[in-house]
Amino acid sequence: MPTFKTGLLAFAAGLLLLGAPACSSPAKYEKTSTKSLYDRLGGSYAIAAVTDDFVNRLLADPVVTGNKEAVKRLPEGHVPGLKFEVAALLCQVTGGPAMYTGKSMKDAHMGMHITDAEWNAMVADFKATLDAFKVPAQEQQELFDIVGSTKADIVGQ
C-alpha cells in the first residue's frame, strides 16, 4: 500500500454519499504550517487516490448502502462522476486549485434521510481510508474538522 510520503493521500468528504459543501475559505482549515493542507496531503493525485478508496468503502458498507434513498440516487454509472466531484471538493476545501461546482451538501442530500448511524459509518470508512494511506494525525484531524462541519447539512435532510 502506498504511504502518505509517496504522495498518495487522503481525503472525504466527506462527505459523503456526497455532494459537497458550499465551502468556506480553505485557509480557515490550515493550522500552523506554512503549507496548505492540500500540499501536505500530497496534491490532486493523492487526493484522487484516497477518494477512490473512500468511495469504494462507502459503496461496500452495508450501513451506508442500507439507505435505499441514497443508493437510488447513485446508479453504478455515476460512481466515476461522484469520485471526481468528491476529489474536486476535497482539493478546494484543503487549499488546492480545483473548484467544486456541484450542489451544496444540503441540496445533494435532501430527501435521503441520512441517519446518525449512516453518518458514523461514513466517518469510520473515512478513518479506515486515511489510516490505510498513513495520513498523519494532524492532517486527519483537519480533514475531520472539515467533514464534521457538513454534518448538519447532510444528516436528517
For the secondary structure, the number of strands is: 0
CATH class: Mainly Alpha
**Helicity level, as a percent range?**
40-55%
How would you describe the oligomerization state of the chains in this entry? single chain
Give the averaged pLDDT, no decimals: 83
Counted by DSSP, the helix tally is 9
**The named CATH superfamily:** Globins
- Tell the overall outline: globular
- Strand % is under 5%
**Structural Rg:** 14 Å
Within the CATH hierarchy, at the fold level, what is the topology?
Globin-like
> H/E series, N to C?
HHHHHHHHH
What would CATH call the architecture? Orthogonal Bundle
The description of the largest β-sheet is: none
What is the count of structural domains? 1
Through-space gap between termini = 36 Å
Structural class: mainly alpha
The low-confidence runs, each spanning 5 or more residues with pLDDT under 50, are 1-31
